[in-house]
Amino acid sequence: MSAPEAGPRRTTPPVVRSAACISHADPAMSLGALPHAEEVLAVCAHPDDESFGLGAVLPAFAAQGAKVRVLCFTRGEASTLGETELSLGEVRAEELRAAACVLGIRDVELLSYPDGRLADLPLGELAGLVEDAIAGADLLLVFDSGGITGHPDHCRATEAALEAANRRRVPVLAWALPEDVAGRLNTEFATSFVGRGVTDLDITVEVDRELQRAAISCHATQSHDNPVMRRRLELLGGREYLRWLSCYPGSASA
Ligand SMILES: [Zn+2]
After folding, report:
1. Structural domain 32-246, CATH architecture
2. How many angstroms separate the CA atoms of 88 and 236, rounded?
3. Ligand 1 center from residue 3 Cα (angstroms)
4. 3-class SS of residue 129
């Protein structure tokens, strides 16, 4: 998730929630049910986001037959964790590839935008890359629009995905945190996690974290000393929470 798991909060971009989205508004109604998708493209900012954040949800999509791919904008070279004599960006690229194998990710497109500066880049340029990467994907999976940790890179990656999805009319599902979990983390660690209330959480799924934990261990430079991430997984237990940022009638979300 590219340390630190704290950072300035950005303004949440506008979202499109059609009637198909709103029908999922009661999380209890959707307990245990991921939407059907033939091909899922996860759009991430940093190597490890796919594991630390999406690492329980991506294998669940793969297990129900979806082809899962990842687009990652940066190599995570600005992390304050895992300093090495080698190039951290290169080490983290290898960590990402190993984790992707564990999670059942078929393809990783790793770009080289500057870690920590995605918000400075033109949204249209980033969205264009997502649009190109969508190819046959019928669902985009992203971090919640508040960036989960509040990291500006996370927010920008999601903004780019939303812009691209709007052009291609592909639904966007976000991994989200319940506000009580975010609140506990912020109290315990003085972090800036952005949580959502129950009415904003559209889908609750039971997850198995075995593959996620194995993928996390692939990111040795980032997971060795990361008590915030471990506490987050502890608080979430065996559940993950998702919300629609945009969806379209007749698409994966309907
Ligand atoms: Zn990150």
Report:
1. 3-Layer(aba) Sandwich (3.40)
2. 30
3. 7
4. helix
User: Can you read off the two tokens belonging to residue 144?
Assistant: 């919640």
Ligand 1 center from residue 55 Cα (angstroms): 13
Find the 118 Cα to ligand 1 centroid distance in Å.
11
Cα 232 to ligand 1 centroid, rounded to whole Å: 14
| DSSP H or E segment with residue 152 | helix 152-168
Q: How many CB atoms lie within 10 A of CB 65?
A: 9
Task: For the chain, 254 residues long, give each residue's pLDDT as a single digit of tens.
Answer: 554 454 444 444 445 554 445 444 454 445 668 999 999 999 999 999 999 999 999 999 999 999 999 999 999 988 777 666 678 888 999 999 999 999 999 999 999 999 999 999 999 999 999 999 999 999 999 999 999 999 999 999 999 999 999 999 999 999 999 999 999 999 999 999 999 999 999 999 999 999 999 999 999 988 888 999 999 999 999 999 999 999 876 566 54
- Rounded Cα gap, residues 150 and 40, in angstroms: 24
Helix (H, G, I), strand (E, B) or coil at 46: coil
d(CA 156, CA 142): 11
List the domain boundaries for the chain.
32-246
SS3 203: strand
Total Cβ atoms within 10 A of residue 29: 12
